[in-house]
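User: Structure please.
Assistant: Input sequence and predicted structure:
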Amino acid sequence: MSERIAKFIARSGVCSRRAAEELIMQKRVTVNGETVLSPAFNVDGSEKILIDGEKLPTIEQTRLWIYYKPVGLITSHKDASRPTVFDNLPSNMPRVISVGRLDLNSEGLLLLTNDGELSRMLELPQNGWSRRYKVKVHGIISQQKIDSVSNGVTIEGVNYGPVKITIDSTQGTNTWLTITLTEGKNREIRRLMQYIGLDVARLIRLSYGPFQLGSLKKGEVKEVPHKVLKEQLGGKFEL
Protein backbone atom coordinates (compact mmCIF):
# COMPACT_ATOMS: atom_id res chain seq x y z
CA MET A 1 0.00 0.00 0.00
CA SER A 2 1.40 3.37 -1.00
CA GLU A 3 1.40 6.54 1.09
CA ARG A 4 2.71 10.06 0.84
CA ILE A 5 6.46 10.22 1.27
CA ALA A 6 6.29 12.83 4.05
CA LYS A 7 4.11 10.48 6.10
CA PHE A 8 6.46 7.56 5.37
CA ILE A 9 9.47 9.59 6.54
CA ALA A 10 7.62 10.61 9.71
CA ARG A 11 6.79 6.99 10.52
CA SER A 12 10.50 6.15 10.34
CA GLY A 13 11.03 8.43 13.35
CA VAL A 14 13.48 10.78 11.63
CA CYS A 15 11.25 13.83 12.08
CA SER A 16 7.66 15.02 12.06
CA ARG A 17 5.58 15.06 8.89
CA ARG A 18 5.80 18.85 8.76
CA ALA A 19 9.59 18.72 9.02
CA ALA A 20 9.66 16.02 6.33
CA GLU A 21 7.65 18.28 4.03
CA GLU A 22 10.21 21.04 4.60
CA LEU A 23 13.08 18.67 3.74
CA ILE A 24 11.31 17.76 0.50
CA MET A 25 10.77 21.42 -0.43
CA GLN A 26 14.49 21.99 0.24
CA LYS A 27 15.20 19.21 -2.31
CA ARG A 28 17.04 17.09 0.24
CA VAL A 29 15.06 13.89 -0.36
CA THR A 30 15.63 11.43 -3.18
CA VAL A 31 13.74 8.31 -4.25
CA ASN A 32 15.66 5.81 -6.36
CA GLY A 33 18.18 8.52 -7.21
CA GLU A 34 15.64 11.15 -8.25
CA THR A 35 15.00 14.30 -6.21
CA VAL A 36 11.47 14.47 -4.85
CA LEU A 37 9.80 17.78 -5.64
CA SER A 38 6.46 17.37 -3.87
CA PRO A 39 5.32 16.07 -0.44
CA ALA A 40 2.39 14.46 -2.31
CA PHE A 41 4.77 11.96 -3.96
CA ASN A 42 3.70 8.40 -3.07
CA VAL A 43 5.95 5.50 -2.04
CA ASP A 44 5.29 1.93 -0.90
CA GLY A 45 8.50 1.35 1.06
CA SER A 46 10.29 -0.74 -1.54
CA GLU A 47 12.13 2.29 -2.90
CA LYS A 48 15.58 3.55 -2.00
CA ILE A 49 14.74 6.70 -0.02
CA LEU A 50 17.57 8.99 1.08
CA ILE A 51 17.71 12.24 3.07
CA ASP A 52 20.91 14.19 2.43
CA GLY A 53 22.30 10.97 0.98
CA GLU A 54 21.55 8.96 4.14
CA LYS A 55 19.22 5.97 4.19
CA LEU A 56 16.10 6.11 6.35
CA PRO A 57 16.01 3.94 9.50
CA THR A 58 13.94 0.78 9.22
CA ILE A 59 10.37 1.46 10.30
CA GLU A 60 9.79 -0.29 13.62
CA GLN A 61 6.74 -0.93 15.73
CA THR A 62 5.30 2.32 17.05
CA ARG A 63 6.43 2.97 20.62
CA LEU A 64 5.73 5.68 23.20
CA TRP A 65 7.65 6.70 26.33
CA ILE A 66 6.85 8.95 29.31
CA TYR A 67 9.82 11.08 30.36
CA TYR A 68 10.17 13.36 33.39
CA LYS A 69 11.85 16.37 31.86
CA PRO A 70 13.91 18.32 34.42
CA VAL A 71 14.21 22.11 34.42
CA GLY A 72 17.17 23.32 32.37
CA LEU A 73 16.79 21.10 29.29
CA ILE A 74 15.38 22.35 26.01
CA THR A 75 13.11 20.19 23.85
CA SER A 76 15.28 20.31 20.75
CA HIS A 77 17.50 17.83 18.93
CA LYS A 78 20.26 20.32 18.29
CA ASP A 79 21.50 23.24 20.36
CA ALA A 80 25.17 24.09 20.55
CA SER A 81 24.92 26.21 23.69
CA ARG A 82 22.36 24.47 25.93
CA PRO A 83 21.74 20.88 27.05
CA THR A 84 18.79 19.16 25.36
CA VAL A 85 16.28 16.50 26.38
CA PHE A 86 17.69 14.17 23.74
CA ASP A 87 21.27 14.53 24.98
CA ASN A 88 20.14 13.29 28.40
CA LEU A 89 18.10 10.21 27.52
CA PRO A 90 19.35 6.69 28.44
CA SER A 91 21.86 5.33 25.94
CA ASN A 92 19.62 2.34 25.11
CA MET A 93 16.82 4.57 23.81
CA PRO A 94 16.24 4.53 20.04
CA ARG A 95 15.95 7.76 18.10
CA VAL A 96 12.79 9.53 19.29
CA ILE A 97 10.97 12.81 18.83
CA SER A 98 8.80 14.64 21.32
CA VAL A 99 5.07 15.15 21.37
CA GLY A 100 4.95 18.92 21.69
CA ARG A 101 7.40 20.70 23.95
CA LEU A 102 8.09 21.86 27.47
CA ASP A 103 10.05 25.08 27.73
CA LEU A 104 13.45 25.42 29.41
CA ASN A 105 12.08 26.33 32.84
CA SER A 106 9.19 23.83 32.88
CA GLU A 107 9.37 20.24 34.07
CA GLY A 108 7.33 17.07 34.18
CA LEU A 109 5.71 14.75 31.68
CA LEU A 110 7.03 14.79 28.13
CA LEU A 111 5.87 12.13 25.69
CA LEU A 112 8.50 10.67 23.34
CA THR A 113 7.89 8.43 20.35
CA ASN A 114 9.79 6.75 17.53
CA ASP A 115 6.90 7.55 15.14
CA GLY A 116 6.60 11.09 13.78
CA GLU A 117 3.09 10.43 12.55
CA LEU A 118 1.96 9.46 16.07
CA SER A 119 3.60 12.62 17.43
CA ARG A 120 1.62 14.72 14.99
CA MET A 121 -1.65 12.98 15.84
CA LEU A 122 -1.19 13.37 19.60
CA GLU A 123 -0.54 17.10 19.20
CA LEU A 124 -3.77 17.81 17.30
CA PRO A 125 -6.13 20.05 19.36
CA GLN A 126 -9.20 18.35 17.87
CA ASN A 127 -8.37 15.20 19.82
CA GLY A 128 -9.52 17.13 22.88
CA TRP A 129 -6.89 15.63 25.17
CA SER A 130 -6.32 17.73 28.26
CA ARG A 131 -2.96 18.61 29.77
CA ARG A 132 -2.85 18.96 33.55
CA TYR A 133 -0.23 21.01 35.39
CA LYS A 134 0.79 21.72 38.97
CA VAL A 135 1.78 25.38 39.10
CA LYS A 136 3.34 27.43 41.90
CA VAL A 137 2.66 31.14 41.52
CA HIS A 138 3.74 34.20 43.45
CA GLY A 139 1.45 37.18 43.96
CA ILE A 140 -1.98 38.11 45.26
CA ILE A 141 -4.56 35.65 43.94
CA SER A 142 -8.35 35.88 43.93
CA GLN A 143 -11.26 33.99 42.42
CA GLN A 144 -12.06 37.08 40.38
CA LYS A 145 -8.62 36.92 38.73
CA ILE A 146 -9.06 33.21 37.99
CA ASP A 147 -12.52 33.76 36.53
CA SER A 148 -11.16 36.47 34.21
CA VAL A 149 -9.22 33.86 32.20
CA SER A 150 -11.15 30.64 32.86
CA ASN A 151 -13.52 31.07 29.91
CA GLY A 152 -10.81 32.07 27.47
CA VAL A 153 -9.08 35.37 26.83
CA THR A 154 -7.18 37.24 24.11
CA ILE A 155 -3.69 38.44 25.07
CA GLU A 156 -1.67 40.55 22.61
CA GLY A 157 -3.73 39.23 19.72
CA VAL A 158 -3.45 35.55 20.69
CA ASN A 159 -6.70 33.75 21.55
CA TYR A 160 -6.47 31.33 24.48
CA GLY A 161 -9.29 28.86 25.06
CA PRO A 162 -11.03 27.96 28.33
CA VAL A 163 -8.88 26.60 31.16
CA LYS A 164 -9.77 24.99 34.46
CA ILE A 165 -7.93 26.50 37.44
CA THR A 166 -8.26 25.30 41.03
CA ILE A 167 -6.48 26.64 44.10
CA ASP A 168 -4.76 23.82 46.01
CA SER A 169 -3.01 25.70 48.81
CA THR A 170 -1.88 29.20 49.73
CA GLN A 171 0.86 30.34 52.10
CA GLY A 172 1.42 34.08 52.18
CA THR A 173 1.84 35.22 48.58
CA ASN A 174 2.75 31.73 47.33
CA THR A 175 -0.02 29.57 45.90
CA TRP A 176 -0.14 26.11 44.32
CA LEU A 177 -2.66 25.75 41.49
CA THR A 178 -3.84 22.87 39.34
CA ILE A 179 -4.38 24.09 35.78
CA THR A 180 -5.97 21.98 33.04
CA LEU A 181 -6.05 23.05 29.40
CA THR A 182 -6.61 21.42 26.02
CA GLU A 183 -4.74 23.61 23.54
CA GLY A 184 -1.29 23.95 25.09
CA LYS A 185 -0.14 26.95 23.07
CA ASN A 186 3.43 28.20 23.46
CA ARG A 187 4.00 29.41 27.06
CA GLU A 188 0.23 29.53 27.55
CA ILE A 189 0.15 29.11 31.32
CA ARG A 190 2.94 31.62 31.93
CA ARG A 191 1.18 34.20 29.76
CA LEU A 192 -2.19 33.64 31.42
CA MET A 193 -0.65 34.00 34.88
CA GLN A 194 1.26 37.12 33.88
CA TYR A 195 -1.99 38.56 32.50
CA ILE A 196 -3.60 38.32 35.96
CA GLY A 197 -0.54 39.64 37.78
CA LEU A 198 1.05 36.38 38.96
CA ASP A 199 4.63 35.13 38.50
CA VAL A 200 5.16 31.43 37.81
CA ALA A 201 7.77 30.02 40.18
CA ARG A 202 7.40 26.36 39.19
CA LEU A 203 5.47 24.54 36.46
CA ILE A 204 5.12 20.75 36.39
CA ARG A 205 3.11 18.85 33.76
CA LEU A 206 1.37 15.93 35.43
CA SER A 207 -0.55 14.40 32.54
CA TYR A 208 -1.13 14.49 28.80
CA GLY A 209 -4.43 12.90 27.86
CA PRO A 210 -4.59 9.46 29.50
CA PHE A 211 -0.83 9.34 30.14
CA GLN A 212 0.27 10.19 33.70
CA LEU A 213 3.61 11.25 35.20
CA GLY A 214 2.87 9.10 38.24
CA SER A 215 5.86 8.32 40.47
CA LEU A 216 8.56 9.02 37.87
CA LYS A 217 11.51 11.00 39.18
CA LYS A 218 13.33 13.76 37.31
CA GLY A 219 15.25 12.38 34.33
CA GLU A 220 13.53 8.98 34.45
CA VAL A 221 11.78 7.46 31.46
CA LYS A 222 9.39 4.53 31.09
CA GLU A 223 7.81 2.94 28.04
CA VAL A 224 4.05 2.71 27.67
CA PRO A 225 3.21 -0.98 27.11
CA HIS A 226 1.99 -1.64 23.57
CA LYS A 227 -1.27 -3.08 24.86
CA VAL A 228 -1.96 0.07 26.90
CA LEU A 229 -1.01 2.27 23.96
CA LYS A 230 -3.45 0.42 21.73
CA GLU A 231 -6.23 0.67 24.32
CA GLN A 232 -5.72 4.40 24.87
CA LEU A 233 -5.50 5.36 21.23
CA GLY A 234 -8.59 3.36 20.28
CA GLY A 235 -9.43 3.94 16.64
CA LYS A 236 -7.53 7.22 16.45
CA PHE A 237 -4.27 5.72 15.24
CA GLU A 238 -3.37 2.51 13.43
CA LEU A 239 -0.65 0.62 15.32
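The chain is about 20% helix and 30% strand.
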